[in-house]
Write a structure and sequence with these properties.
- The protein has 413 residues and is α/β, with parallel strands linked by helices.
- It has two domains: 2-201 and 392-412, 3-Layer(aba) Sandwich (Rossmann fold), CATH 3.40.50.2000; 214-388, Rossmann fold, CATH 3.40.50.
- Helices cover 43% and strands 17% of the residues.
- The protein is built from 15 helices and 14 strands.
- It has helices at 16-30, 81-99, 115-128, 142-146, 153-169, 178-186, 214-219, 241-252, 269-278, 295-300, 322-328, 340-347, 359-371, 373-388, 393-412; strands at 2-6, 34-40, 58-63, 66-71, 107-112, 132-136, 172-175, 195-197, 226-231, 258-263, 284-288, 304-308, 333-336, 351-353.
- An eight-stranded mixed sheet has the order 3-4-2-1-5-6-7-8, with helices on both faces. The protein has a six-stranded parallel sheet with strand order 11-10-9-12-13-14, with helices on both faces.
- Strand 1 (2-6), helix 1 (16-30) and strand 2 (34-40) form a beta-alpha-beta unit.
- Helix 3 (115-128) packs across helix 5 and helix 8 (241-252) crosses helix 13.
Length: 413
């Protein structure tokens, strides 16, 4: 099968969309399929093009057998609403233009986030009749409102219309969790037979149980400390102000045994780091952006993984990929996400649930795990045995390709 995959993010970027798409694409190539990625120059999250790349009209490379076409976009950091909208829409028009000259694929997938990537798929379907599969990893435009992004109401109305048209145009929709599927059926009136769930999973080649890395611990001053790590985009949705508030409480109590390790970058990383410095919180460490290759060792060097989002109804539908990476490294999870993600972790007996943005809940959970090493280890092994063994990238790629092959066959009839 010839698959064209439209994605705003791709390796060497290390965020969840880039990781998912690259993991799927590389496995499909090994199965004998031909995969072409249409993406932009890697620059997430700070809007600076990675070393070795340039934001040119078009460049091509091959990564692990996958053909990667990188196209020009207006590049912006993961902040400032208007500039981000320009970034998103420039990808849409650029992908549409370049897609006009590509060979017709058997299947085209366009993945959201971001929303306008999905719309590049709509345009190519309208103008080139590419068989169009929409992948939903985030519900727009609700997700904009949930993080208080300042978007003018008239623009939101346009986006709501575009969202409806995008769902109607797609021949099929793949989403990453049952929560999204339920919301699409109930709120967006999408027929159930037009939907399938392909969960995220762990890449067991990179995420597996291993001892702590003493070099990493020494680098960040973590030796002898209980380490609670958050690894991912430090953006408006993460609600990590709560971590600083917990750190203040621990400092006031004179407890110097716990460290919060915040790994990554994003729209509010600088703001949080400045606040931590002003309050002299030496129990919160910001690493900045790290390469994908460093993440498994950082996670394995932690005692517990924090998965946290702001308290909002929309996030009850999400299934963060951090859950699966923690499972691969056999690390217990403090899950500060309500809804499907919370139920998933609790059913696997893989961690402790806390109310999002509840300072006392998070403090109690961290202290409970620190004071009970046996519980910490048991939850970590449950996380590995009950999640990692069932949800991995190989199974995910197989499930997804089965869907695409059925759609290809149906489209030919």
């Amino acid at each position: 099968m010839k698959i064209l995959f439209l994605t705003h993010y791709y390796t060497p970027e290390g965020n969840a969309p880039a990781t998912r798409v690259s993991a799927l694409s590389e496995r499909w190539v090994k199965m004998g399929h031909e995969v072409t990625i249409l993406t932009c120059a890697p620059n997430v999250p700070n809007g600076k093009v990675y070393e070795g790349y340039r934001n040119k009209w078009i460049t091509q490379e091959e990564i692990n057998g996958v053909k990667v076409i990188r196209i020009w976009t207006y590049i912006a950091a993961n902040k400032h609403t208007i500039r981000r909208i320009l970034n998103y829409t420039s990808y849409m028009w650029s992908a549409f233009f370049h897609g006009l000259f590509l060979p017709k694929p058997d299947i085209m997938i366009a993945t959201s986030p971001q929303f306008f990537c999905g719309w590049a798929g709509v345009l190519l379907h309208w103008f080139r009749r590419f068989p169009f599969v929409l992948e939903i990893r985030d519900i727009w435009p609700e997700s904009i409102a949930s993080v208080n992004a300042k978007v003018p109401p008239f623009l939101l109305r346009i986006v709501y219309w575009m969202e409806s048209a995008m769902y109607r145009t797609a021949m099929f929709i793949v989403t990453v969790g049952e929560g999204y599927k339920k919301k699409l059926i109930q709120d967006k009136r999408i027929p159930e037979n037009k939907l399938a769930v392909v969960m995220n999973g762990v890449d067991t080649e990179h995420y597996y149980p291993r001892p702590k890395d003493e070099t990493i611990l020494a680098r960040y001053g973590l030796n002898g400390k209980f380490v609670c790590s958050y690894i991912g985009t430090i953006g408006m949705a993460c609600g990590l102000k709560t971590v600083l508030d917990v750190a203040v409480k621990l400092k006031n109590q004179g407890d110097d045994t716990i460290r919060f390790l915040l790994v990554g970058d994003g729209a509010i990383r600088e703001e949080l780091e400045n606040e931590a410095n002003q309050k002299e919180l030496n129990n919160v460490i910001f690493t900045g952006r790290c390469s994908k290759d460093e993440i498994p060792a950082l996670l394995a060097s932690s005692d517990v993984s924090l998965v946290h989002l702001k308290k909002t109804d929309l996030f009850t539908t999400v299934m963060p990929s951090k859950i699966f990476e923690s499972a691969g490294c056999a690390r217990p999870i403090i899950i500060g996400v309500e809804g499907y993600a919370k139920d998933f972790v609790e059913n696997a007996k893989a961690g402790i649930a806390v109310e999002p943005e509840n300072v006392n809940d998070l403090l109690d959970a961290v202290l409970k795990l620190k004071d009970d090493p046996e519980l910490c280890q048991r939850l970590g092994m449950n996380c590995y045995n009950n999640i990692s063994s069932k949800y991995n990238r190989d199974q995910q790629a197989n499930d997804y390709i089965d869907i695409l092959e059925r759609l290809k066959s149906a489209n030919k009839r």
